[in-house]
Amino acid sequence: MKYTTTMPRAIAPLTLIAALLCGSAAVAQDRLEVWSRSGPQAAATYQAVFDAFTAKTGIQVEYLATVEFETQLRARAASRDLPDVLIYDQSSMAGYANEGMILPVDRAALVGADDLSDASWDSVRMANGDYYGVPFSQHAQVTFVRRDWREALGFDVPTTHEELIALATAFATGDPDGNGVNGDTYGMAVPGTTDRGFFAWWLSSYMMQRGGSFVEGAEGKYTVTVNSVESVAAVEWIQSLFCGTPSLVQPGALTNASATPFFAEGHAGIYQTGPYAIANFDNAPGADKYEIIIAPAGPGGASTLTERTSIYLGATSTMPDAQKALAEFLISPEGQEIGMTAPGQPVVRLPVNTTLDGAAIYGDDRWRVVEAQLADSQLMPSDIDFTAARLEIAEGFQAMFAQCAPVGPALDNLALAISDALADQDALQ
Amino acid sequence: MSDLTGATRQSPAPSTPARARRGRPQSQWWTVWVFLMPALLLFLYFKFIPMFAGIEMSFQQVRPFLGNLWVGWDNYARVVTDPRFHSAISNTILLGVGQSVGAVLGGLLLALLLEGPSRVLWFIRTAAFLPVVTATAVVGEIWRIIFFPAPNGFLNSVIGLFGMGPLRYLEDPAIAIYSVMAVGIWQNAPYYMVIFLAGLAGVDRSLYEAAAIDGAKLRHRLLYVTLPALRPAMMIVMVLAAVRCLRVFTDVWVLTGGGPAGATEVWMTRIYSLGFERNQIGLAAAASILLLITSVVLTMLAVYLTRARRVK
């Protein structure tokens, strides 16, 4: 008799587990799930944008900010339950679109679409002509220089590569921080990590400025140019930053996940990165200590990399109207402005909405420099999935600069690897 | 089962309470399964089903939204012929063997030095064990600081005292793997130390006394008393090290990310990169299954060798 009472008790945990495993699917969705790849500061700004959206439309938003965006998204893709809206790098659009994870966007049906420039819309157009994203934020990489160091050593703002090298060499060998020790500071802070192919982004600006390129083409068809005569010369110049004497980059650059601390903590004096770093650098080293300049020009000009953030609509969403409403709010003057000014970190770096004046909203003339640089900047191919090629580039360049060997043969191998990556998706011209 | 219960009922002397308690679990054979069931269910859901899904995916081109394509042995062929996998496998073996041997020897040395009942030793043992319980990500960051490649970096200042030049520990493709190895040894040795300490505690003290009476020196006692007595502990440690070395990932990932120039790329980092960076889940699954098979074979080999020795 005793058993009949104790056994159900033993089974109870099982029922509980079974309920946990199977029970969650039945809950009806009433909130729009939105993801972005953001740290805590940017997440606070996004939250302010979504709060305003909810106040305006009554649509509740469930927001997740993660820096492990790709990995978490893959996990959700495997369970065929994607977030409703994704806000992420432009560079990921083609990959998601090819896999059917995001939905095409009807540009004409989107309220406010005409306030966005054609250049913005071009960036979210796939090779087949369909739009798979809504532009949200844009900027170009700019050059951060420690003004106090530069002035202490008596240099002008560098406008050419020769002047840039001279300044970096002075930072690396002299005593710009005035601590009485020569050579304990470094010239340039470089993010040389291959994680997500990050190094390729930093490299692309200097490649352009030296007249080289990774690939060339448009409309979904590209030729590999990384081993052309111009590119080889460009790579040799960049390699000399790493392998020359003195080395102009910070030690450990090639395995560094982030070069930001080197600039922020006063170890390196020149850093080419996006203006999202402004908020950090105003804290340290301090807004009065550094300046933002247009990239010093090389033989190929002063172009840098355009970076864009776009809005994507998850393919499994059951709330298409709410998806569209959020996208419309995010590109509206109101949404864009909150994204620039809410406490935290600007998630709209420069507005894609052409009715807005970014620098005026910030009340900060440094953003005029970013605007000017944006006008002279180029996007990496985004109408094809460039991820595999970007990883090959980052890994190939890291190997070349770690070994300090002649770059010619290595670039030929890299060209083959990029060709394979492009041929896999029929994007080779 | 009915026989058994029948027998108890028919027994002339009614069973004592103690006997009845002992008899009941035997009569309810399924009780065991009920108690095992929660663990089995969790294993089924979180281990076995994903494993079989992994095996299935290794034969597919994985496209979550467009439907997976069956590609047969294609993924395996690509993995086996990929030169980067070859270098990853040789790096795994180099790193695994180096780390295992280093950590086992280091653990043995630590155990011999730190054996004994003294309170001070207890404190030092705890301190020595800290690397094992520290998160590998934290360990990686600490060692990145120690390895800082400038002349005034921590380790470079130390070796500078001996007139050695600054080294680029994690950046020089020729030495990066040895730097990672050193960190692995530093982190794993205390773990093996604990196993050896347990083994040492079991050594019969009278053997030492007998050896001392016979005039054995320290090295003799070590060779002929301590080490033979440690053989069971040694076996456990060897099997653990062999199995662990194949799945080395976190220390490599936080220290170098597999770079520079693929010099520290190991089996697991290659799988991660293929699966999560390049999104070639099918290829990554095939590589994982190969890793699983290799691990199983190695473990069976280790178990077989241990048994063969015990039989002798």
Would you mind describing this structure in some detail?
The complex is a heterodimer of chains A (429) and B (312). Chain A has helices spanning 2-22, 40-57, 69-78, 93-98, 118-123, 147-152, 161-173, 198-209, 229-243, 260-264, 278-286, 320-331, 333-341, 358-362, 366-375, 387-403, 407-423, and strands at 32-36, 61-65, 85-89, 134-140, 142-146, 186-189, 215-218, 221-224, 268-273, 290-293, 304-313, 350-351, 377-378. With 429 residues, chain A is α/β, with parallel strands linked by helices. Chain A has two domains: 32-140 and 306-378, Periplasmic binding protein-like II (D-Maltodextrin-Binding Protein, domain 2); 142-305 and 382-424, Periplasmic binding protein-like II (D-Maltodextrin-Binding Protein, domain 2, 3-Layer(aba) Sandwich), CATH 3.40.190. In chain A, the strands form three sheets. In chain A, strands 1, 2, 3, 4, 11, 12 and 13 form a seven-stranded mixed sheet that branches. Chain A has a four-stranded mixed sheet with strand order 6-9-5-10. Chain A is globular. In chain A, 48% of the residues are buried. With 312 residues, chain B is an all-alpha fold. Chain B has a domain at 82-279: MetI-like fold (Orthogonal Bundle), CATH 1.10.3720. Chain B is built from 15 helices and two strands. Chain B has helices at residues 2-10, 17-27, 30-57, 74-81, 83-114, 119-133, 136-146, 154-161, 176-201, 205-213, 218-229, 231-246, 250-255, 267-277, 281-311, and strands at 60-61, 69-70. A two-stranded antiparallel sheet of chain B has the order 1-2. In chain B, helix 4 (74-81) packs across helix 15 (281-311). The longest helix of chain B has 32 residues, at 83-114. Chain B is globular, with a radius of gyration of 26 Å. Residues 1-20 of chain B have low confidence and may be disordered. The chains are: A alpha/beta (429), B mainly alpha (312). At the A-B interface, helix 1, helix 3 and helix 16 of A face helix 3 and helix 14 of B.
